[in-house]
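Example 3.
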Amino acid sequence: MKKLINQVEDFVRESLEGMAAAHPELVRVHLDPNYVVRADAPVVGKVALVSGGGSGHEPMHAGFVGRGMLDAACPGEVFTSPTPDQLLEAARAVHGGAGVLNIVKNYSGDVMNFEMAAELAAAEGISVANILIDDDVAVRDSLYTQGRRGVGTTVLAEKICGAAAERGYDLDRLAALCRKTNAAGRSMGMALTSCTVPARGSPTFDLGADEMEIGIGIHGEPGRQRLPLPAADAVSEMLATAILQDPAYSRVAREWDRSASAWQDIELVDEPLKAGDTVLAFVNSMGGTPLAELYVVYRKLAEVCRKHRVEIVRSWVGPYITSLEMQGVSITLLRLDDELTGLWDDPVLTPALRWGA
Amino acid sequence: MKKLINQVEDFVRESLEGMAAAHPELVRVHLDPNYVVRADAPVVGKVALVSGGGSGHEPMHAGFVGRGMLDAACPGEVFTSPTPDQLLEAARAVHGGAGVLNIVKNYSGDVMNFEMAAELAAAEGISVANILIDDDVAVRDSLYTQGRRGVGTTVLAEKICGAAAERGYDLDRLAALCRKTNAAGRSMGMALTSCTVPARGSPTFDLGADEMEIGIGIHGEPGRQRLPLPAADAVSEMLATAILQDPAYSRVAREWDRSASAWQDIELVDEPLKAGDTVLAFVNSMGGTPLAELYVVYRKLAEVCRKHRVEIVRSWVGPYITSLEMQGVSITLLRLDDELTGLWDDPVLTPALRWGA
C-alpha cells in the first residue's frame, strides 16, 4: 500500500489536524469526537446545515464547511459512518436556535446513525430534519444500501441548501429545498481501478488490466457490470444515457415529524429528465483520474445532452466526491430552476470551494 | 494503459474542446494551433500574461486563464513544449497594446521555443518579456533542463502577476515582479508511482512496491534518490527541510533587451529562506494523491516551519500542477511581503481558481 500516511489509525485525525492548520480563518476542528465547524459557529438565527459520512471522499464533506455551505461536517473513519454521539455533538456546536438540517447520503449505517442523532437532539430541544440523498441511478439495494445510494447530488445539495440557509430559509423551507434538490439530481459513476482502504491495506476489488466497472459506488460497491474499457466517449455516453433515460423513481422516505416527535413515512417521486430541461452538469473525479480526462468526458457529455435537448447552463468539473485514489469518473445532472440556479451562484467560502466571497 | 481518452492523438484537443464547452463564459479555445485565451481578450491597455508548456499538468496552465490570472495558455502535446508559431499566435490574440509577459518554466524545449516566439513577436512590434521560473531545489541540470527546473512557483507567479497586470502594472514592472516572485519561491516534489504518457502507453519509470523517488520532476525526471517509502511525516520533513535549508542560488538568466533588440545575460541571486520570514505554503498533488493525504503532509510541514521560525500566513492545498495520474506530492514555500500577499489575495476568475469574483 503506497500512501502518504503515518499510522493507519491516525490518518483521519492527522488529516483533520492538517486541515485545521491550513485554514484557521475558515474552520475549527474538534477531535475525539471528530467534527469540523465553520469558524464563526454557531450562527445565531440561521438553520445549521450538517453533513457527514465516512472519510475517504475528500473534499466532501469537511472541505465544504464554511459560509454559504455546511456549518458542520462529521467525518467517520475511512468508509465508516460517523457515530450518533459525534453527530449530536456537532449539532450542539452549530445550533444557532433555528434548528439543524442533516444532509444524509443513503447508506444504511449513515441513515441509522443520523436517525439516532436526530432523536437525541430532539430530546434536547433542538429541531432537526434529516433529508436523504439517493441519486445514484446505477443500482437499487446495493452493498451497504437499501434503495439507491447517495452520491454526487450530495455536494450540490450542500452548496444549494447552504446558500439558502445563509439567505434565511427556515427549517421547513430548507428541508423542502433539500428534498427538491435530491429529486432533481441523478448520478452514475464508473471505475478504472480500485482504491485501497488504509486499514485493509490491499485493493477493495480486482479489475482486469482492460476492464472497468460501470455503475460503481463510492466505496467500491459493485455496479451494473464489468466491461472491457472502451474509449472515453463510450463511457461518457453510457453514464449520460443511463441518467437521461432514468424513469420516474418512487420510494418511501422516513422523516422526523417534529410535531409528533416520531418518524413518519412519506412518499416521494423523482420525475425523469426530459427535453427542454436546463441542468447543471457535474463531472467528478473519483480521485485518481486527472482533470484533462474529466474534460474529455465532459466534451461527450455536452454532445449527448444536446442530442437529448437538455441544456447545460452550469458546469462543475473536478475531484469533489472521491473514493481515495480510485481512478474513475462520475456524472451528475441536476435539473435547475431559477431558485436552484440562483442559490448555486451565491457566494461560498470554504476550504475546497470559494467564489464570490 | 487505463485512461479515459479516445485516440491518443486526439487527447489534448478533445480535452480542450471539453474545457471550451464547460466554461464558455470564462475562456475561448483556439485549435490548430492550440491556445486558450480569456473570453474578453484582448484587454486593451493591459499587459498580457502568457504561459504554456506540455500538457499533462492540468489545471496548469489553461485552467488558470481568466480575469486576474493568465490572458493565454499554450498547451503542447503531453509533456511536449508548445511550438514558437503557437506561442506567437497566442501573443497576437491577447496583445492589448501594452506588451506581453511570458512566464516560462525552465525546460530546454520551452525556453528555446519561447525565445523564438519572443523574437518573432518583437519583429511584429509586440513588446515581450520572458521570465524564467526555476524554483525546484532538488537537482541542477536534470533531464530536459539546464539549471533548476520550473515547478510549483510557476502557478503562484501566474496568480500574483495576473493580479498585478489587472491592477495596471506596466511590462517592466510586471517583469520585475515575476523575477522577484521566482526568487522568493522554492519547491521540491516526490513520487510514489510513475505516470503513463498516453503516446508511450507504459509507465515512464519503475518504482518498487515500497519505494519512492524524492526530488522528482513533473515529467518523471529523476530526482535526488530512491528510498524506501517512509511515513508521511518523514516525507514532508525531507521536502520542507531541503527547501528551508536551500542556500543562496546564483545563476545567469537570459532576458530579451527590448531597447537593443537582443538577448542579454543578467545575474540573479535567490536569497535563502530564514527565520522570521512569512510564507505562502503550497502543498500540491502530483495528480493521483488524494486531498486527505495532502493535509497529512501539510500538518507536518506546518510543524517544520514553526521549528524554523518561518511563519505560514497563506496556504494552498490541492492538485494544481500535476503529472497526469502520478501519485506524489510537492511542497512550495514562497516568501511573502505586502506586495505579494496583496496580489495573492486579489480576485481571480478562471476555470480552476476563482475567488473574490
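The mean pLDDT of chain B is 97. The two ends of chain B are 40 Å apart (CA to CA).
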